[in-house]
Design brief:
This protein is mostly helical and 274 residues long. The chain contains 12 helices and no strands.
């Protein structure tokens, strides 16, 4: 990838700071670099392309009949919106291992020598991951429609559900980028990611209604942001249930995670590349 846009000196800032326009150019160049990396390493898209199909088939045909008394079409309409909530978490987890691997391979040492804003490296990764989340969600919906998923609202509500899922997933990437910069190896990042991911996924309303869960677990699911996102996606696609409350709570979670974790991730990156 050409680094001309990043290596050129930045003019107009006597204090050495990088202006907004230059920062946007750097982000664009880094987004292109990350996209080209995916192009030359197609297996990097496996989680975005294959996992939605695998999860949709596995849970619908293995567990769906048991959970709905044999009515798999009913479970598809329950499960597919829930899986939209889970997709962002799975993809966000992979970015932590990628960031850690970049540090171990010396890629970040190259960025350290360039006159670019440190935050642009992480923001470019965020943009690419949001694109992968969007692609994964589209594949999931296509698979869902093939399996009998019914949209009972309209395209605007469906777009709102997709946007909400990608927006929340983008906030999670800051958590895993911070883990990627804090742990020693990609394996450690993956292990810690699973410790975070498993309780959030299975202690939620993604796979099954919470009414039959024991009281202590039901209390956890009520505060689990994945449950609120899954409930919001179901309400937006089915037209049943409250929409404003789960959407608002999901947006609050998204803002809170981003405001807390993004500065920590950027500061950690600056400390590691100074």
């Amino acid at each position: 990838m050409s680094t001309a846009t990043m290596t050129a000196p930045v003019r107009g800032k006597s204090d050495g700071r990088i202006g907004p326009r230059a920062n946007l150019r750097h982000i664009g160049a880094l987004v292109r670099r990350n996209a080209l990396q995916i192009r030359y390493e197609p297996f990097a898209m496996f989680d975005a392309l294959a996992m939605p199909i695998v999860f949709a088939l596995l849970f619908t045909y293995v567990f769906g009949g048991a959970m709905t008394g044999g009515n798999r079409s009913e479970y598809v309409n329950y499960f597919i919106p829930g899986l939209m909530a889970m997709g962002g978490l799975n993809i966000a987890m992979s970015i932590g291992s990628g960031v850690n691997d970049d540090f171990n391979k010396g890629v970040m040492d190259r960025f350290r020598t360039l006159p670019i804003a440190r935050s642009s490296v992480l923001i470019a990764k965020l943009v690419v991951e949001c694109g992968r989340m969007l692609l994964s969600t589209i594949i999931l919906l296509i698979m869902g429609f093939i399996m009998g998923f019914e949209l009972k609202t309209g395209p605007l509500e469906l777009l709102a559900a997709v946007a909400l899922a990608v927006l929340f997933g983008s906030s999670l990437t800051w958590i895993f980028m911070l883990l990627g910069m804090s742990l020693p190896t990609p394996q450690a990042v993956s292990g810690m990611g699973f410790l975070v991911m498993m309780p959030l996924q299975f202690g939620s309303s993604i796979f099954a209604p919470t009414a039959t869960m024991p009281g202590w677990l039901r209390s956890f699911t009520e505060y689990n942001p994945l449950s609120r996102l899954a409930d919001a996606a179901r309400a937006l696609t089915s037209g049943h249930g409250a929409i404003a409350e789960p959407v608002t709570v999901t947006l609050i979670w998204t803002a809170a995670i981003t405001v807390l974790m993004a500065p920590l991730a950027v500061r950690k990156f600056r400390n590691k590349t100074t």
